[in-house]
Design goal:
This protein is of the alpha/beta class. The protein folds into two domains: about 30 residues; about 100 residues, Cupredoxins -  blue copper proteins (Immunoglobulin-like, Sandwich). It has a four-stranded mixed beta sheet. Strands 3-8-7-5 form a four-stranded mixed beta sheet, with no helix packed on it. The protein is globular, with a radius of gyration of 15 Å.
Amino acid sequence: MHRRRFLGRVGAVSAAVGGSLSVAGCLADEYDVGMLASGYVPEELTVEVGDTVVWENTSSRGHTVTAYQAAIPDAATYFASGGFDTESAAREAWTTDFGGRLDTGDRFTHEFGVAGRHDYVCIPHETGGMYATVFVEE
């Protein structure tokens, strides 16, 4: 089953049973990873090679999606909101101009072409533990 459709169904069931809309229900068919005030939801996501992941800032705080360059496979394409080619460029842009910032409702997408573990972080909320992982399978 397509993961967005699955998450939408899980959210609909959760809303019906619990009487309140869960974060999973918000995901529906729109995006794969939401951003709360200090965390990504889900923190771990498994996709297949060739899949595109969509992140959406679902909070009122500005966030980034920034790959840890040393924590993605060697052959993988680097990814960061703002389109930076390296982690150091993304961090410098954030420090000087809030580069790569995703405001409420903004989206970032990345197609994963290499299997393996892809760790990423929100630069302004890194010290608060806002980091997550996309596992890409063959």
